[in-house]
Amino acid sequence: MLALDQRAFAHSSAFWRFDGVALAEAGQATQMCRRRVIKDRRRQLIGHAVTGQTSTIGFLQRLAVDPLAEGQGIGSALVADALRWLARNGTREAWVNTQPENLRARDLYLRHGFVERDVGLDVLMHSLDNTQRGPS
Fold first, then answer.
1. What is the distance between the alpha carbons of residues 88 and 80, in angstroms, rounded to a whole number?
2. pTM to 2 decimals?
3. Domains contained in the chain, number
4. Nearest CA to 114 among 124, 105, 104?
5. Using CA atoms, how far apart are residues 44 and 27, in angstroms rounded to an integer?
6. Cβ neighbours of 128 (radius 10 Å)
7. 71 compared with 55, residue with greater pLDDT
């Protein structure tokens, strides 16, 4: 998983590049955590997500897709899976942050119903309240 994560964030600033310790800590930052992976036909890891929940707030803490597999719906499948898991566990909001210049990631999150929040970083929020459900 670490090798995939490093490939996915190879061209990002140092802030977004994780080592093994940082990737492990992403899963320990919340009360509950779920790690999901997607493999290709050759059983090679091509996508992973770390989703966490604290009380009624969820976090898509890490999402990485192998650069050679971009555009195949891997990221979308991982986001949809994370939102379903959070909703099943009673989460009312899901938060994610991304690099402001990472338009591909921003567009992915916006397509899944996240909305931008004005907090300095590109932080997006998705309401999981049944009365305000966005596209999935």
1. 12
2. 0.83
3. 1
4. 124
5. 22
6. 22
7. 71
Cβ pair 108, 99 in contact under 8 A: no
Q: What is the pLDDT of residue 8?
A: 94
Give start and end residues of each alpha helix (H) in 1-136: 2-8, 20-26, 74-88, 103-111
Contact present, 18 and 9 (Cβ < 8 Å): yes
- Helix (H) / strand (E) element for 53: namely strand 45-54
Angstrom distance (rounded) from CA 136 to CA 30? 24
Measured from the Cβ of residue 124, the count of other Cβ atoms closer than 10 Å reads: 22
Q: Pick 128 or 4 by higher pLDDT.
A: 4
- Residue 22 in tokens: 């940082």
The letter for the amino acid at 17 is R
Give the CATH number of the domain where residue 101 resides.
Answer: 3.40.630.30
d(CA 21, CA 17): 11
Q: What is the DSSP letter of 86?
A: H
Task: Judge whether 79 and 49 are in contact, CB under 8 Å.
Answer: yes
Q: With bands split at pLDDT 50, 70 and 90, how would you rate the model's confidence at 134?
A: very low
What's the residue count for the chain? 136
